[in-house]
């Protein structure tokens, strides 16, 4: 599953997002470049304020009015950031679909699930009414909603949290998109339901040949679902690579510290290894590596200039001057 | 059980129950139906020893937060007893109740809602000291500094207001406030679930350190299994208002006895990418706590459910093992 | 997450200096305007004789009904009394009305709302019905009815307004208190064994006060309007007392020849009302506390 040498379906070049707030400009995302191959699951992981969700929204230009995006988002040879609004509407939902953290706010409360799936089918596919109904039942079946033909006529509030998330996935899948953007899709769910939804998404990606970008703050979710991972900190990608390689031996000091701070659940009553301090403010210029003030491996050079992303292994990049020292460390437990 | 022995556990909860009557819809009223009753906590019993940590885990609707609020009497339980050092705290009133409050404190989940925005950190901490007459005059300021040291906040934090702090720092202030009255037990209700992972670790370590230094007992309520293993000596797993399994944390983690505990452990995301599988840990949805399934509440989702599970509520008993479990099939070799 | 990002990123300790600087240099413009206007009227109210160019009740038969001029900027009335001086002198009574007609409702209503919001129970249910009853009647009509029973005069007007007015403060406070009760800092105060008085007056009331104070400012503006209306109708301040509503009523018979007699006191009412409203808005900004 891990080594794919297919042409990427989505390529992001040097993406930047700036918010103009009354208190000044906030550079939420800077210089983010990434690729997603067909059928690949890419994890975008980081803590709050790391810019992971903003990055995801910027791909489809779903940003608030005070935001300015720069760089390029190449989808099938076309720059989505430069595309006209009309073309973007074709792409949204049909070629690239999105699911959100809180289905209750993403679903329309006054329309039944059937109507909401139908809306997407009418907009993006050429089917008559009966065929659309049949397709809607099929979709609910696909996402594991029992007695689909009955539940189809329910309103969102008649579903439980997990079922709502399934319904939202069904709506997203209606137009058979080739890329699914998932913004913390399981953060609001209980563990056993999160497990079900993650397994469902994995199955759908494999069966339908979709690619997926999964934004999450939970490294465990990344480990369970993603092929590759981009770790973000203070609006930048600091490390990327295949999940198994990154987890086994991280090459950025932040990834290293983040993995170590996670409760592994394998040791009883042992202190954790936290990262001291807090992430930097993004409304001020950051000189050097943004992680330097909290870093255990920091050197003078880190504070002088932002380290560039460098190749640190097969398909792996890290923006860390201590990458070699980290590579020499024993693997993180 | 009534003897106030020195060896008695610090906190002893027996058959605790708390129900909420929900609003009746007009339609239900017309049909003469009674208002629905949510049994948030149902027959819960456990004990906490001095200086030890009991972890309570469960998913939403399992009643863990209601339980926490019953323990500090923010809610009045309907039945059962809560004994602190052998004294039934549910009967305490007036000065005795305030004395109990001093000994059992609570740390809350929401770092933004748990501090009065109009009180500076210093005022917030000294208020607790002055009300309980734990310090006077210049000793108050000294004690506030001590408390800030204890939770690793800079001393000048005393002059600042809650909005000037990050989530993790606010949680430290909340902990300092609880420590101000020198409690011997702290009930922590999801104290880190609103925080980022790297900050979570800071707060978890603080709890471990404080427990060591002050000999505190801790009831640590969380939905995060990975976390609970790091903090607790003992564990109670809750599902729809009941405790399904309780025992030493390490032993439950290595050999869970209840099918639900097994499912919870399997569902928690693993940090090792290689062990990935596409099999669901447990099927089905969480049932509504207003209309829980009959018999064992877990039976509709249970992979090994038998007819008896639909009919009878299993009691929390050792069932031939070293710790109690509420499963008809435990000890019979089926699990 | 995108929405919360700037705030998230700003959660640093250095926030302290920012807020202090904010408070000193960026006093909100509406607040500044409100303070200036209300202070001016307060000054007029406290020392009218120091500001007014003429004696407000001195007749001047050489200048009857004279239009605004340099000598009489607001003109004179049918007895030659200076309208500017009378308008200034009237502010004493009108600001008294603003305060006396609202202070009892403010105090009583806030306390009632605080207790009802905190304790709930049957008192809350009873209060709900009372609110329904009061809001279905037009406020002015009830006040007029009460004054009609008690007899005209300022004191009876205060009584009439207070009998009804506290309900609005109580409703506002009750709602705030019910929301605040959900906050964990109130739960923390209970767990710390604080007395109910301490929880109510130190932890809940200060956080519930903002909308009440803002409403009070608006209410003072409304009270002036009401006082003027009743004065105009002859139910409030009695002539010869200079009161804006009475001044307007005095001028109504001469409106076609001497518009200035009614228009300038009218302006005073409007300006004073705007002043209190701005003060209320500004106060809302100033008292807003970040959570």
Question: What do you see in this structure?
Answer:
- The complex is a heterotrimer of chains A (333), B (335) and C (291).
- Chain A is an alpha/beta fold.
- In chain A, a hairpin with a 2-residue loop joins β1 (8-21) and β2.
- Chain A contains 13 helices and 12 strands.
- Chain A folds into 2 domains: 8-95 and 177-328, Rossmann fold; 105-176, no CATH class.
- The longest helix of chain A is centred in the middle third of the chain and has 18 residues, at 191-208.
- In chain A, α4 crosses α5, α4 runs parallel beside α7 (161-173) and α5 (129-142) crosses α7.
- Chain B folds into 2 domains: 11-254, P-loop containing nucleotide triphosphate hydrolases (Rossmann fold, 3-Layer(aba) Sandwich); 257-269 and 293-335, no CATH class.
- Chain B has 11 helices and 10 strands.
- In chain B, α4 packs across α5 (138-150) and α4 packs parallel to α6.
- Chain B is globular, with a radius of gyration of 21 Å.
- By secondary structure, chain C is mainly alpha-helical.
- Chain C has one domain (28-52, 74-287): MetI-like (MetI-like fold, Orthogonal Bundle), CATH 1.10.3720.
- Helix content of chain C is 73%, strand content 0%.
- Chain C has helices spanning 5-9, 15-25, 29-46, 48-51, 83-119, 122-136, 139-150, 154-180, 184-191, 196-233, 244-251, 260-287.
- In chain C, α5 (83-119) crosses α8 (154-180) and α7 packs across α8 (154-180).
- Chains in contact: A-B, A-C, B-C.
- Chains A and B meet through α8, α9, α10 and α11 of A and α7, α8, α9 and α10 of B.
Judging from the principal axes of the Cα atoms, what is the shape of chain B? globular
Radius of gyration of chain B: 21 Å
* CATH class value of chain C: Mainly Alpha
Strand share of the residues of chain C? under 5%
Pfam families (chain C): BPD_transp_1
Organism (chain C): Alsobacter ponti
Family (chain C): Belongs to the binding-protein-dependent transport system permease family.
Protein name (chain C): ABC transporter permease
